[in-house]
Automatic annotation (TrEMBL):
Tree of life domain: Eukaryota
Protein name: Uncharacterized protein
Catalytic residues of the enzyme: D9, D11
SUPFAM superfamilies: HAD-like
Gene3D superfamilies noted in UniProt: HAD superfamily/HAD-like (3.40.50.1000)
Species classification: Eukaryota, Viridiplantae, Streptophyta, Embryophyta, Tracheophyta
Source species: Turnera subulata
Keywords carried by this UniProt record: Magnesium, Metal-binding
Binding of Mg(2+), residues: D9, D11, D142
Length: 242
């Protein structure tokens, strides 16, 4: 029986926004951010934003409280809890791969393991899983860096790019480089539904030779939508669990 490993990106995947931008906007440093944006790399820019917040008397707890207000689709909450708690586990590891600060992920999800270098994360996760049994990876992401992880997936793995986002477009433009089975998704409702279905099917059919997913081909013809994506969660959201 294969060990199942679910790997999620964070910004614009688990949540529908960029957590850095959320903090900048909701803690009121937009003006300074806009002034420095043309002159600094993103990491240096966010370092300056943290310094600016500190100079205004904001604390780590203030940032934590701000991050806890980011909406999270209830279907994604259900899917992640199901994957973590189902009887098919412990052969399913849920790892979160953020491209933001450790603080955000620690506040939100308190993961046991977190590797910020996405180019090394798949190798690190593979080594962290005990035993010699086959491993089935499910990778969910939206951004350009996720493509590096996708290249490490094999023909039995599942790749889940968010449609009309940079990760999806890279796959469309380089299909011959991808070995994994592809299941695209559009919004939090669809992602949560797919993950629940995959988890439930794995539990039910774990002794079957059939694939545990209902794969659909990537539709690379619809590339007119905005890369940043619509605000699809706002009609049905929950605050982050405390």
């Amino acid at each position: 029986m294969a060990k199942v490993v679910m790997v999620f990106d964070f910004d614009k995947t688990i949540i529908d926004c960029d957590s850095d931008n959320w903090v900048v906007e909701h803690l009121g440093v937009n003006e300074v951010f806009s002034q420095l944006l043309p002159t600094l790399s993103w990491n240096h820019l966010m370092d300056r934003m943290m310094m600016e917040l500190h100079s205004r008397g904001k604390t780590t707890q203030d940032i934590a409280d701000c991050l806890k207000q980011i909406p999270l689709h209830p279907r994604i909450i259900s899917a992640i809890k199901s994957a973590h708690a189902s009887g098919y586990h412990p052969y399913c590891y849920v790892n979160f791969v953020p491209l933001i600060s450790v603080l955000t992920v620690t506040i939100w999800l308190k993961p046991e393991r977190c590797d910020l270098r996405i180019g090394l994360v798949m190798e690190s996760i593979r080594k962290s899983i005990p035993g010699d049994a086959d491993k089935l990876f499910i990778y969910v992401g939206d951004g350009t860096p996720d493509f590096c992880a996708a290249l490490q997936l094999g023909g039995t793995d599942i790749l889940m790019p968010r449609k009309n986002f940079p990760f999806w477009e890279l796959i469309c433009n380089n299909p011959m480089l991808i070995k994994a089975n592809i299941q695209e998704w559009n919004d939090g409702m669809e992602l949560g539904t797919i993950l629940l279905n995959v988890s439930n099917t794995m539990i039910t059919d774990q002794n079957s030779n059939e694939r545990p997913d209902a794969l659909i081909p990537v539709d690379c013809k619809s590339q007119t939508a905005s890369i940043s994506g619509p605000d699809v969660y706002n009609r049905n959201v929950l605050p982050v669990p405390q």
